[in-house]
Design goal:
This protein is mainly alpha-helical and 98 residues long. It contains four helices and two strands; from the N terminus they run ααβαβα.
Length: 98
């Protein structure tokens, strides 16, 4: 997967029927995360190892984001979220105490 906004910085990032061709790469692994990483490396994208992450999910999807948020915090990322998502993640103890 190559995100088109990396290749066309002046183009609106919303995906639509007029998408530009960006080429294709494939990452194969038994683990989705590793497969994604391999695809991004093959496309020449560098995945960040630190920084900020913004999370906003619908109420019905909030439980599935818990392990992702916890892992991002464990890896040292600062997690920002919309108010409802933030309240949920705080309640689920996804952030370090303090």
């Amino acid at each position: 997967m190559v995100f088109p906004w990396n290749r066309f910085p002046e183009v609106d990032p919303l995906l639509g029927p007029e998408m530009k061709s960006t080429g294709e790469v494939m990452g194969i692994d038994e683990d989705f995360g590793m497969a994604f990483y391999k695809s991004q490396a093959a496309a020449g994208s560098v995945l960040p190892e630190k920084g900020n992450v913004f999370i906003s999910v619908a109420d019905k999807d909030k439980p599935s984001i818990i392990p992702v948020a916890r892992k991002l915090v464990e890896l040292g990322f600062t997690v920002y979220a919309t108010s409802g998502t933030h309240r949920f993640l705080r309640k689920m103890e996804c952030f370090p105490s303090g």
